[in-house]
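Board notes (copied after class):
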Amino acid sequence: MSDLLAGAYLAQGTIGNVGTPGAPIATFSLVVVPSQHSVTGTVVITQAIPGPDSRIVVQVTGKIYATGIGKVTQVVGLQGEYVHSVPPPGLGSFLAKFDAHLAIDNEWNGTGGFSYYQHNIENVPVKEAKNLKEELV
């Protein structure tokens, strides 16, 4: 039973053009279990413009696989759902989908993209973060 979590580790970082005004940034904190090809954790999407999509928290699950291709040593796919509230004059909320794809090295640096309600961000940097406390608050 203890072999199920063999090699598990925490991966933290960002997906997006950090430092670009108004660019959506997905900050992730994930538990990775390579022996099971599984990834689970939290993604926080932030955008420095007011509105319903300025801060979104998504619980995600996904898969990780080794590639053996040059600098890209791993590929990761993430999926999740979050409650999206309709801004006035509309009323109500619904479950919106989130997904992300990453082509990364062993340090979790590379290229990727993500999508969420009416937003699709492609070919942006993925960067490992040493300390996410400030970004996840």
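Comment from the instructor: The mean pLDDT is 90. The CA atoms of residues 5 and 33 lie 6 Å apart.
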